[in-house]
Automatic annotation (TrEMBL):
<feature type="transmembrane region" description="Helical">
    <location>
        <begin position="392"/>
        <end position="410"/>
    </location>
</feature>
<protein>
    <submittedName>
        <fullName>NIMA (Never in mitosis gene a)-related kinase</fullName>
    </submittedName>
</protein>
<keyword id="KW-0418">Kinase</keyword>
<dbReference type="Pfam" id="PF08378">
    <property type="entry name" value="NERD"/>
</dbReference>
<keyword id="KW-0812">Transmembrane</keyword>
<dbReference type="InterPro" id="IPR011009">
    <property type="entry name" value="Kinase-like_dom_sf"/>
</dbReference>
<feature type="domain" description="NERD">
    <location>
        <begin position="15"/>
        <end position="134"/>
    </location>
</feature>
<keyword id="KW-0547">Nucleotide-binding</keyword>
<keyword id="KW-0472">Membrane</keyword>
<feature type="binding site">
    <location>
        <position position="246"/>
    </location>
    <ligand>
        <name>ATP</name>
    </ligand>
</feature>
<dbReference type="GO" id="GO:0005524">
    <property type="term" value="F:ATP binding"/>
</dbReference>
<keyword id="KW-1133">Transmembrane helix</keyword>
<dbReference type="Pfam" id="PF00069">
    <property type="entry name" value="Pkinase"/>
</dbReference>
<dbReference type="InterPro" id="IPR011528">
    <property type="entry name" value="NERD"/>
</dbReference>
<dbReference type="InterPro" id="IPR008271">
    <property type="entry name" value="Ser/Thr_kinase_AS"/>
</dbReference>
<dbReference type="GO" id="GO:0004672">
    <property type="term" value="F:protein kinase activity"/>
</dbReference>
<keyword id="KW-0067">ATP-binding</keyword>
Amino acid sequence: MATVLKEVSRISGLYGLDGEEKVAKELAEQLPEYFLVINSPRLAMNDNVVDIDHIVITPAAIFVIESKNMNGRITGGLMGNWTQERLNDGKKEYIKIGNPAAQVNQYTKVVRDYLKHHYYQQYQVQKNFKMEPIVVFTHEHSNINGIHYTSRGRVGKVRVLLLKDLVSHIMSFDKEYMTLEEMHEVADILVPQDQREQTGVYPVLNDLPKESFRSRYQILEEIGRGATGVVFRAFDNKLDLEVAVKRLYAGQDGEKHKQWKQIARISARLNHANIVRIHDYYEEDGEFYLVMDLVQGLTLSEALEQRQFSWREIYDILEQICNALDYAHREGVIHLDLKGDNILIDEKGLVHVTDFGLAALAELGPSKSIGTPLYMAPEQVRGERGDKSSDWFAVGVILYQLITGHFPFYGKDLREVGQDILYGQPPPLTRWREDAPAELEKVLAKALAKEARQRYQSGRELLADLKTALGERLESGQGLTQQWFANQRWLNFWRDDKKKFYVIVALTALIFGWMFSLQMYIDRKFPQSGSSTTGELLQDSRLDTTLITNENINQAYNKVEEWSGRKVKITGRLEKLVNRTEDYLLLQMAVSDSKGAITRILVQYNGDPHLLLQKEESLPLVRLVGNLGSTTTVDPRNGEIIKIPLIVNSVIEPIELWNAMTPAKYKLDVKQILVRHGIEVELERIEIAEEETRLFLRVKNRSLQKHLVSLANPQARQGNNIIYQLYHSENNYQFELQPEQEVKGQIILGPLDIIQRQVEISLGNNFLGQEPWVFSVKW
């Protein structure tokens, strides 16, 4: 029997005492005597207090174990909440259980950091500890076949298993890293002698430091970026759920922090089904964070790109927007930046209005001119203070978009947009939609009135007129919840290009698999003299089945579970950036074999995140070394979860230089440097080709703090002619630089006129009047 240093605490009774006692009994009875078992330890490290289910100390590793006593089918993976599917009175119900893998991974980091710190303090030795995080399901009817593993039996670094497999997994680690003496030293640090009898509820630790943002929230991925900040999907370690976190561009500005605190407090009181709730805010390391509801769905802008809405759906969406605004206005809060990107639609068809944080609040006084140009009311365009009627003008713009798929006001630049809003009239609805009733023109005319007092003053008033104008069309159509958003998996599939691409890859793999099977049948049925069958080809000594190469990668992709974890060594051409997060780039790569057959693969690359600042078509031929793993997506045909191959742990080495650009007719060695607030921007050179102009730039942060650098909306001016960018960056050339960090990249504009012999180039243009970076070049 193992040596048990501490029994299970009664504090676990709230969270699954039965499961923990099952694990404790299994560990005590089945592990060797010299293995040390600690049940229910509590650790406090850097504001982070965690109650861990079990720690097992062995010569080979330290195992941090999270136990879950749940019956039924468990589904989940690296990202997002896991779900327990179980029967209740004969009906299936689905219960979110957080993300146990993310939770135990966080606990493991705390244990490792705690040990390294205290071990050095006591023994003056810098020691690295081999850590192994485990999630174990203890119920006899637990089914973990629905877990989406990134490698065999693992979700990220976390091993997921059933109770019957726990001991055998621990015993499979046989390489010794610690002596028995060191094991007991570790145990004494984790649970001192005077705490080993503690099996009751722990006392409140009043002397702990204030909770920090970084200890409570684990940032998972970036999901959006706007005018005021970056939005992340995050995991709340305290409440065991996913949230959205917005890191504001306030930087070290104390006055802005003060304003955002006031805005957060007032916005947090908005409690309405159609408004994204603000839960909390944090100031830490000079940054300001807002914590809010995470809405899994589409923005209205994304939805409008995909389809035209029915009249019933238009009414449903606008009704929920109006309800949210009516409520906020009654609470004294106005929005002033209402737009498609600030309206979210979840999988149930529920509309959520977000970013009231941008609003000027009535009790703080009327707002100055802020907002997004295409949605601005005339008074905002004139620089006057906005009010409630400005919000209703934006609702009118959204209604026009819902009906037609277009904006009511246009222009080739911001000045022209502003002029159209002030003096122009929207094109008639029938230009875009022939079945638009004439009565709708009257509704829109009032909603988009130039004078604020002539507009609708409440959503109830607008909805009444809209309902009358649509008439029978409302009765014949299906509502939003009945049709498009009924299937959450379908919604998640359409959420971004990355998931669309996954399905394309999956379908391609299925087609190749079908062709492969067909060829095997043909070769067996109708063998040709002098040629080997497909079955024989698999035994060909030229194909090393332990190493995935250009020659067998298609076979590996068709049998990803069989080949998962094997080393990949291939050569191919990077084709496109599928997705970018703070931690990695997701790339599409084309790989061809000796017969010219092309396989397109997904690669997770953890290198320089600014690698793809340049034009995507120019990505080079590369050599890649990594491992075959997988990710998951939803098959749109049947809603089933399917695995998609993914190359991980990748190292990319360019074989050829960037040579995909058209030849330059004229090259200018500029080397102009502008410096502002410690940020150095250099225009190194300009290349003018027949159909494009290439700007080669270098940006460096020479200050002592990190900065958000914007080169957004680049353009060049020659006389009265303005030349705009041809290829748009995913992050609109906005990125964060640490002190002394430097990046280089290219921006592609339209062709310059060489004969004019001069140009003015401006970078970082925006409507809020921030000073752009301006280069004047003559030749």
